[in-house]
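1st attempt posting a full record on here, be nice pls
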Amino acid sequence: MSASTICLITLSMLTSASVFAEPLSTPDIDDIEYPVDMPPSAEEITLGKYLFFDPQLSGNHTISCATCHNPDNGFGDGLKLSAGHDGKPLTRHTPPLYNLAWSSSLFWDGRASSLEHQVLMPIYNPSEMNLSEKVLLKRIAKSQFYQSKFKQVYQQTDITPHLISQALAAFMRDIITNNSPFDEYLAGAENALSPQAKNGLALFEGKAKCIECHDGANFTDDSFHSLGIAFEDKGRANVIKDNSLAYRFKTPTLRNITLTAPYMHDGSLPDLESVMTFYNDGGGSGPNKDKLMEPLNLSQSEIRDLIAFLSALTDPVLIARPPSMTQAQISPNEMHKGENIWK
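the predicted structure (as C-alpha cells):
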C-alpha cells in the first residue's frame, strides 16, 4: 500500500464523526464546573426553586418558569409549541432541563453560554414571560420573604439581577438524572437492560449511528446539526452570522427522553416511533441538511430495540413544588397598582 493511500485512509478516519464520539457513560458530579468553583448550598438551591415556581417572575403574574418546564412532565409541557404570557404560541418547542450542569451552550440555538446567562432571558423576553429587569427587582424588593432568603443565602440586602440569576441557576444545575437502568448496567448490573435494550445499545453505537451526535455521559455532543426539518428558522445562524450554520439546532440530551415528547426544535414529531422513522428515512428535505443524515435501513424489529434502549435512559427527577407562594408575593392588587412592567 502506497504512502499516499495510507494518508488518505488516515484522513478519512480522522474526519469521521464516530471517531470523535465520546464513549457513553454516567454523568460524574465531580466534573461539574461551578461558577465559583464550589457547589451551591442547599439554601441557595431552595431559593432558586422558589423563584423557578413563582409567577411573580412574569409580567401578568400568570406563568412561572415551571409553567413550560413542568417537573411533572419531564421539565417540558407536552405541547408542540408552548404559549407565552399572552397565550400566543412561541416559535420553538420547550426543551427539557436535565443535566444542564454539564452543558456549554443553552437554548436550541446556543445563544447562552451558561445557566447564569440563560435564566433571565425568558423572563425579559416580551414574547415569553414579559417582565422588565426594573419591575422584577421592584417585586422581589417588596417581598419580605425574598428579602430574608436573599440575605440568608448571600449575606447582603441589595438584591441584584446577578443574584437572582445565580439562585435560579443553582436550582437548575441541580436537576440531575444519573441512575437509569443503563447507568446500573454500566455499573455492572447485567440484568438492568433487557435483551432488546442491549441489542438497541449495539444498534445505537453501530448501524443506527445515533452516537455520532448523541454521545458521552449526557447523550449530546453539545453541537448543532440540521436534520432537514427547518425551512425558515435559521437556528444557530441567527446567533453566529454564518450561513454554513443555517437551520442547525443543538443536539438535545436523550436522558429521560420517554418523558419529553413531542420532539425536535419545532415539536413536529409526536413520539419516539415517529422519531425513529424520521431518522430511518434519512431525515427531512430542508436546506443545508447535515451530511450525517442518510437512510439507515433499520427493520421494524431494530427500531423497537432502539426504543427499548432509549427507554432504559429513564430516571425521573422528582421535585416537590414549594409551599404556597403566598408569603413570597405581594397581593395582586398592590402589584398592579400604577405598575408599568416595561419601566
